[in-house]
Amino acid sequence: xxxxxxxxxxxxxxxxxxxxxxxxxxxxxxxxxxxxxxxxxxxxxxxxxxxxxxxxxxxxxxxxxxxxxxxxxxxxxxxxxxxxxxxxxxxxxxxxxxxxxxxxxxxxxxxxxxxxxxxxxxxxxxxxxxxxxxxxxxxxxxxxxxxxxxxxxxxxxxxxxxxxxxxxxxxxxxxxxxxxxxxxxxxxxxxxxxxxxxxxxxxxxxxxxxxxxxxxxxxxxxxxxxxxxxxxxxxxxxxxxxxxxxxxxxxxxxxxxxxxxxxxxxxxxxxxxxxxxxxxxxxxxxxxxxxxxxxxxxxxxxxxxxxxxxxxxxxxxxxxxxxxxxxxxxxxxxxxxxxxxxxxxxxxxxxxxxxxxxxxxxxxxxxxxxxxxxxxxxxxxxxxxxxxx
Length: 389
Fold this sequence. Notes:
By secondary structure, this protein is α/β, with parallel strands linked by helices. It is 53% helix and 8% strand. The chain has helices at residues 3-14, 19-22, 30-40, 58-71, 90-99, 112-117, 120-132, 138-147, 152-162, 169-180, 192-195, 197-209, 230-244, 261-267, 282-294, 304-322, 330-337, 344-361, 384-388; strands spanning 46-52, 74-80, 101-102, 214-220, 251-258.
């Protein structure tokens, strides 16, 4: 029994996206993937937005891009946005990004190994960067302390800060003074609500100096921004703008969201009509993000030929997973599964159900899919800080 194949089939059957699938099903949407691959080779950085209907493969596409990027010697981070991870809170977003950052050929997340292996000359460049090129110089003092302490508890606290569990300015001053017997005076006190972008730039520069080709950040289910209150949504758009327009350190960002976002949120919540509520110059950034969402390319449903290509591989993996020889082919399976629901995810699960029945009973009964309820973003759920206001 092939357990890797079993894992793939079980992931497809459950409808739960998995990175392991992304390495085997890149044959669909080859033109789109080729364009994204060329973009990652461009050294331009920046961001893109892709939209699609529910169940049409947005997360699967991101998992495929994950594999492609790692094959190009790039660091990759991937997070799914939700009610618990509001994009208006960049500090919280950064923490999730750092926790879900994978280096090439590494199964476990984390970037601390790069700090330990960085050559002295490169480390000096990184320290100079943190002293001169960021909004605050907190990271300069933190990095210098990290490189000059042998106390495991102190080192752990400093590394945790780099991963988004920020320590206070006073605590860092105390740590620094304990190591160097010098008093620290920050150029500006670090405030996570205003200065977290420094950490994103720091990681980008670390990856660059470590010899990686770049850094790709994948944001799934960005439509959850539409569930925030207006003030938080505008803050989320400003944060999106930072990622979409970043051209430093070969940082690439890719957002996926449902194709009904423009109508249900931008149009029906009259986002542009309330732009005057945003602080200057944020309204210019917000307007740009709204336009980019409205004009974002949409993933089209796969045609029958592309679907048959996927089914050919599913038949192969199912045979390996359960050690049998399916008495069907991709064309027959396509005929059975094509009409079982509108969404790609539903069709794939129907195809696997057909194979399961053939494997267990030697025949296929009636397979049908019910109607799926569509999510709406018209009624925003306020965040705790909005309730207090």
